[in-house]
């Protein structure tokens, strides 16, 4: 299973914004964007003084932000774009909906994990049931009516025992419902564009792939 294994803090610095790839650390003074808010590398501090980006440069940066936010590599991201393009409706909105419906993202949106990377690890380690059956594929796409639940055997784990105390105070998007006492969540509807809060413009991504 291919994945990025480098420093995720460098990804935020390269994009010039917090992508919240490390959960609570991103909200603390330890966040790299708080200490070194410039691009990584020996010439990072000079990036802000360079000439304005071209249209292609802006499109590329939006695509990279989306990939890095959801923790996806280029080949899989391109496949999601192809699926969005073939679906009815606006391609950009379809793409965001597909990305949000990944199992690891749903676990993150339910507040069961502090970051998408942590959610991906929890799913891969087999801590969840999807519609009553053990599930360990973070890239699988959920549909309306699907239920994700922490497995009974996993609730004895120290992480989930501590989580039970704070899960009741978590808020979830409109297209999800959370049962904190049961450590489960249900996909009540396919997410719409106005229900998805992300730090990038999907239209620029569409323009990038439409060149």
Please describe what this structure looks like.
- The protein is α+β, with helices and mostly antiparallel strands and 211 residues long.
- The protein folds into 3 domains: 1-51, Ribosomal Protein S4 Delta 41, Chain A, domain 1; 55-100 and 198-211, Orthogonal Bundle (Ribosomal Protein S4 Delta 41, Chain A, domain 1); 102-187, Roll (Structural Genomics Hypothetical 15.5 Kd Protein In mrcA-pckA Intergenic Region, Chain A), CATH 3.10.290.10.
- The chain is 40% helix and 9% strand.
- It has 9 helices and 5 strands; from the N terminus they run H-H-H-H-H-H-H-E-E-E-H-E-E-H.
- The radius of gyration is 18 Å and the shape is globular.
- 30% of the residues are buried.
Largest sheet: 5 strands, antiparallel
How much strand? 5-15%
The total of helices stands at 9
From the spread of the alpha carbons, the general shape counts as: globular
H and E order: HHHHHHHEEEHEEH
CATH superfamily of the largest domain: RNA-binding S4 domain
What is the typical, i.e. mean, pLDDT?
85
Fraction of residues in helix: 25-40%
Strand order within the widest sheet? Answer: 2-1-3-5-4
Number of strands: 5
Task: Indicate the CATH topology of the largest domain.
Answer: Structural Genomics Hypothetical 15.5 Kd Protein In mrcA-pckA Intergenic Region, Chain A
CATH class descriptor of the largest domain: Alpha Beta
Low confidence ranges: none
The N- to C-terminal Cα distance equals: 29 Å
